[in-house]
């Protein structure tokens, strides 16, 4: 049986509520603390209402409770673009994000694409995606990337498509439904370690 997708309770709420909870963690990171965008218990996605948001929901959905997967790394991305975070600290945050399914979702979120551009991050992101895919996929059509409609994670355009494309997966394959064998079925053999 596939384990449930667990999500930090701090990331469940409206955009403004979650922003308010996450901002102090970003400020601590900017002051030299390790990347830890949340504190508190984990909740089972199946027990939470709303979409697993990979981008800011449009009004009026931004005022409804969602699981704001994108938001911690979006705040970090804004700091990276503003020159407040050096490459070593950025790498620390990305590496830490690869250790949990919800952290990986933050990296796969379209607003955080600048974090997946460096080629040296492609294989670690793919490795995390393969490790967590069953958990992420089992959430079903709960994902949204800035729309009011839910979809499967594979059914959305995410940063995973960028990574897979850079690693040699064709646009034709990326545009097709995911085979029943899952993500492993589309990974080039040279990366199926």
TrEMBL record:
Q: What is the name of the protein in this document? A: Uncharacterized protein
Which organism does this sequence originate in? Answer: mine drainage metagenome
